[in-house]
From TrEMBL:
Residues 4-117 form the VOC domain. This is VOC family protein. Pfam families: Glyoxalase. PANTHER family: GLYOXALASE-RELATED, VOC DOMAIN-CONTAINING PROTEIN. Coiled coil: none annotated. It comes from Nibrella saemangeumensis.
Length: 118
């Protein structure tokens, strides 16, 4: 069996702020769900969510999730800081076969990445 991601959850301290950040970054609305103590912001594509709950702590440590950077991840990295995040690593070539990557910190302090072929 090949590994594949079916669902991911990004911890947030402030769901409204995080939804604003990701909405601006990916130019898409984030749908809010109120599940009592657990608050979620569903990301477009339906494969993941922002999650606000006492058991979820934003961090630079742990698993590093890379989003699809589209045709050129530099376009998304250019949106990070105006949306309230911080670019950690600018567009960097991994190899000719693997394309490019970049790292950013979201509005909540999570470290995440982008990948693209160009």
């Amino acid at each position: 069996m090949q590994p594949s991601v079916k669902w991911f959850e990004i911890p947030v301290s402030d769901l409204a702020r995080a939804a604003g950040f990701y909405g601006k970054l990916f130019d898409t609305p984030v749908m809010h769900l109120d599940l009592g103590d657990l608050k979620m912001g569903l990301l477009a594509g339906g494969q993941g969510a922002l999650v606000q709950h006492h058991a979820y702590k934003p961090s630079h440590e742990g698993v590093l999730l890379f989003f699809d950077g589209g045709n050129d991840l530099a376009e998304l990295l250019d949106r990070v800081e105006p949306a309230g995040g911080k670019v950690i690593r600018t567009k960097t070539q991994i190899s000719p076969e693997q394309g490019f990557m970049g790292l950013f910190e979201d509005s909540e302090g999570n470290r995440l990445g982008l990948r693209s072929q160009q």
